[in-house]
TrEMBL record:
PANTHER family: PTHR21301:SF12, REVERSE TRANSCRIPTASE. This is Reverse transcriptase domain-containing protein. Residues 1-210 form the Reverse transcriptase domain.
Length: 210
């Protein structure tokens, strides 16, 4: 449900190839950018996350008040009773959520949309509106095409890093080619973009595609 509601969210990179071809045929002079949220799962403040989920469920579902309250009660329980064992000592995680939890990916995705981080800070930013011609996100990984001065790009990222405490982006940029998840995106001489498969050097190819 969440990925259907969030227009900029990618379920995987398969839809990127036709979309990039259609909407970014003339990217001449642009900068290819990837952004990665640093330690997203463990940096989400509980109350900010809870507020984001409540906002999302209110705006994008038809839950009754009782259903909404039930979901929120479960979320509070999972976040505030999340204990773990380390060196024979039990701890309660006071900030963020465990990466292995089933609710962690949709929770983090809502927070990034969200909190609406994209809704509140990204889409309303004047530099984004003027210079970003493409923006797609897979949970905490973003691919963006920036048409404009690179100093303004760095200013935009700096502004994003000052929006929410403990939430910051790492940036990679190139005017030729860049890796995003399992794709390599290349800006060709004619201004068109080519999307190819990318395998990390550490990939041991232990899975057989069916």
């Amino acid at each position: 449900m969440i990925d259907v509601k969030l227009s900029e969210y990618l379920i995987n990179t398969q839809p990127m190839t036709p979309v990039v071809y259609i909407y970014c045929r003339n990217a001449s002079g642009c900068t290819l950018v990837t952004l990665d949220v640093n330690s997203l799962y463990t940096c989400i403040n509980h109350q900010r996350g809870i507020d984001a989920v409540q906002w999302f469920l209110t705006e994008y579902t038809n839950f009754s008040p009782d259903q909404l309250q039930f979901c929120m009660d479960l979320l509070v329980l999972v976040l505030h009773k999340n204990f773990f064992l380390f060196s024979d000592q039990y701890y309660i995680q006071k900030t963020g959520t465990a990466m292995g939890s089933n609710m962690a990916p949709p929770y983090a995705n809502i927070f990034m949309f969200m909190a609406a981080f994209e809704e509140t800070y990204v889409y309303t930013h004047l530099l984004f509106q003027k210079h970003s011609i493409y923006w797609k996100r897979y949970i905490d990984d973003v691919f963006m095409i920036w048409k404009g001065d690179e100093d303004l790009l760095l200013q935009f990222v700096s502004d994003m890093n000052s929006c929410v405490p403990n939430l910051s982006f790492s940036i990679q940029k190139s005017t030729t080619s860049i890796n995003f998840l399992d794709t390599m995106i290349t800006l060709e001489a004619d201004g068109n973009l080519d999307v190819d498969l990318y395998c990390k050097p550490t990939d041991k190819k232990q899975f057989i595609a069916l």
